Amino acid sequence: MSEAALDRQQSIPALRTCWVCFGTDEDVQLDWLTPCKCKGTAKWVHIRCLQRWIDEKHKHNPASEVHCPQCNHLYKIVYPRMGLGMTALDLLEKYIHKLCPYVAAGILMGSLYWTSVTYGAVTVMQVLGHKEGVGVMEQADPIFLFIGLPAIPFGLIIGKLLRWEEAVLKVWRKVSSMLPFNSSKESSTSWITGNDAAEDRLPISYTRVLVGALVFPTISTLTGKLCFRSFKSNFQRSLMGGISYFLIKGILRIYYLQMSLKRRTQRQIENYEDEE
Question: Dihedrals φ, ψ of 168, to 5°?
């Protein structure tokens, strides 16, 4: 290219291009703006396009800062002055926006607390009997009730999370492996080591933990009424029913875990055989 042609090409001004709508001076006649540090054609943007783009950014938080997506320069946005009433309303809107999450969390925690209190009171009346339970709660200190009653469901859930069956099974496997009359030998197809077997656990289902913990008092009461009718006290029947259910369920779970491990160690993978 000759020097004259090159000078003529450089003398032709580049068309301004809006980086929002990609329109040029030839496409649409709108007012232009250069709000950031970008150079060349990327620095130009239509004022109306930029206003719409800022509205999209302010959709979720009108008070947030807006930066250029290319050079990350902070746009300088100037609002007209407001009157005293509008200023007060704007401050009120901002404080309400900031306080609402904390108020919502407080309401949620309060609802959870009073639900726990109600569940604790129902559990006391269920385990002790309606009349005895009401009498105990009427004679108890109010502070003790406000702390003790909501602690009942949380205590049941924490107790449900303590997986004592796996600990007992782990100890039993170690003890049984050292007994002299234990003649069982590892199968040639077994691929699970002793440490893997000791750590063999079922995955935790939190919905099952929650349901199991909350229905435990009801199951204990029903078991006590069916199996321990000779006890005159509702509390003694519920206590014995709870202990019986706890032990029977634990033994069945230990047996299930042991048999599951046994099935895993004895499984085999067959060779591929062409059916044709």
Answer: -65, -40
* Pair 235, 127: CB distance under 8 Å: yes
What is the number of structural domains in the chain?
Answer: 3
C-alpha 135/C-alpha 235 separation (Å) is 14
Is residue 185 in some structural domain? no
**How far apart are alpha carbons 57 and 70 in whole angstroms?**
15
Check residue 200 and give its pLDDT: 56
d(CA 129, CA 148): 18
Is 167 found in the same domain as 262? Answer: yes
Q: For residue range 73-87, what is the model confidence (pLDDT) as tens digits?
A: 998 888 888 788 888
- For residue 273, being part of any structural domain is answered with no
Query: 147-173 burial, b if ≥16 CB within 10 A, otherwise e?
Result: ebbbebbeebbeebeeeebbeebbeee
Report how far residue 127's alpha carbon sits from residue 120's, in angstroms, rounded to the nearest whole number. 11
| Domain ranges, residue 55 | 8-78
Q: How far is CA 60 from CA 48, 54, 169, in A?
A: 20, 11, 54
In this predicted model, which residue has the larger pLDDT, 197 or 93? 93
Question: For the purposes of burial, counting CB atoms within 10 Å of the CB of 8, is it exposed (0-12), middle (13-18) or buried (19 or more)?
Answer: exposed
Instruction: Point out which residues pair with 88 in neighbouring strands.
Output: none
Same domain for 205 and 217, yes or no, is yes
127 and 195, same domain (yes or no): no
Number of continuous H segments (helices) and E segments (strands) in the chain: 9, 2
